[in-house]
Amino acid sequence: MKYCFLSLFQNLFHWNGSSSPRNTGESQYAGSDNVVGPEAMERFCRDMGVEPENVSVIMLVLAWHLEAAHMGFFTEDEWLRGMTALQCDCMERLKGKLDDLRGELSDSAAFRNIYRYAFDFARVSLGNSGFLTPGPYF
């Protein structure tokens, strides 16, 4: 099980297997700032076999579960904490949860929470100007 978790982590952050799980600068998905952005997450979803029309849905529900501070951007800590909470220690388990993640939008309580999460991001991004402003990772 530990190997699976490390494998999932390495897939996203390309950890070199040392005792300190830090980005080696050669990440398949994470940038040099150890953050996985929207384009990398889209690629990650495609690599997992997520249909193109479902990528944004999966990304939104994952962002909510990972408690991402910035929409579409995932830090190493958010990823580790969220995958632990989802009990996904390998790619196969995460793939197995994709239908459940999509299905959460059919649950009224989960939908309300996800909607509120997305709405709060939009409200903060729009600010007082009514226009979207770039987040801290732009």
TrEMBL record:
Residues 17-138 form the DCUN1 domain. InterPro entries: DCN-prot, PONY_dom. One of its GO terms (molecular function) is ubiquitin-like protein binding. The keyword Phosphoprotein applies. Keywords: Cytoplasm, Cytoskeleton, Nucleus, Phosphoprotein. It is found in: Cytoplasm, Cytoskeleton, Spindle; Nucleus. One of its GO terms (cellular component) is ubiquitin ligase complex. PANTHER family: DCN1-LIKE PROTEIN 5, RP42 RELATED. Part of a complex that contains DCUN1D5, CUL1 and RBX1; this interaction is bridged by CUL1. Interacts (via the DCUN1 domain) with the unneddylated cullins: interacts with CUL1, CUL2, CUL3, CUL4A, CUL4B and CUL5; these interactions promote the cullin neddylation and the identity of the cullin dictates the affinity of the interaction. Interacts (via DCUN1 domain) with UBE2M (N-terminally acetylated form) and probably with UBE2F (N-terminally acetylated form). This is DCN1-like protein. It comes from Salarias fasciatus (Jewelled blenny). The lineage of its organism: Eukaryota, Metazoa, Chordata, Craniata, Vertebrata.
